[in-house]
Amino acid sequence: MNFRATLFTALLLAFSARAEVVPFNVFLSSNGTGGAPTSYTIPAGKIYIIKAFRPFAVTPLPSTTQFRVVVRADNIAASAFQTVTIKDTYMNSNTVWLPNPFHLKAGESLQIPFNAEYSSFRYFGLLIDESDLYAQGIPVEIDGMAVNGGELIAEAQFGSPRPRRTVVETATDLDAFEANVTAEEIAGATRDRATFSVDTEDADRLFLRIRASARN
Questions:
Q1: How far apart are CA 190 and CA 197, in angstroms?
Q2: Among 70, 79, 160, which Cα is nearest to 114's?
Q3: What average pLDDT does range 14-33 have in this prediction?
Q4: pTM above 0.70?
């Protein structure tokens, strides 16, 4: 039986637990621009991951590029301001990507740095349920497939743009899935899309599933 002729019998499965992970951007202002507050507190049950920020200051301009947060101690009832310097130089209104994500838990807050007269400050990040921070699954949807030159091609849409670990498994029987060592992933135009290809190995039919979990 020819695989191309029986492509309709192939089953594409996406297994994952849905995690409440959403992009969440915070706008702060020192002078009330746009009705923005001067700080933002992380809600109960949530964790905020700072990915990037964009500062805008008026005279005097800061000498370094910083962001500022309030963090809480876990071993005593105390909290403290913390200023994190990312660069020893400063360029006004540039988006600055953190070399590593910075995590804040519920009750902690985003602030405006004190090293200049900031009129606005933007934080770009992800807001996550506490229960979904580690080992959470990322939903995967298959929205297209084709056979080309002995390869099964699958288009995948991920439920989050977060860094991830992806495993592609195939089987000729639904009870015998195994990791497919021939699988290749091609990054899509955005972080939440990718194309996968696997060798059909002249099978009459092929079942394929994709598993994804967040990588923190």
A1: 18
A2: 70
A3: 72
A4: no
- Three-state secondary-structure class, residue 133: coil
177-206 pLDDT tens trace:
889 888 999 999 888 999 999 988 777 788
Tokens 């394929």, residue located: 208
Q: Nearest to residue 8, comparing CAs of 142, 205, 183? A: 205
Chain mean position to CA 101: 10
Structure-token pair, residue 21:
């992970």
DSSP H or E segment with residue 120: strand 117-129
β partners of residue 123: 26, 53
User: What's the token pair of residue 179?
Assistant: 């990791």
Question: Confidence class of residue 175 from pLDDT cuts 50, 70 and 90?
Answer: confident
Dihedral angle sign, alpha carbons of residues 106, 110, 111, 115: positive
How is the beta sheet containing 79-87 ordered, strand by strand? 40-41, 109-111, 65-72, 79-87
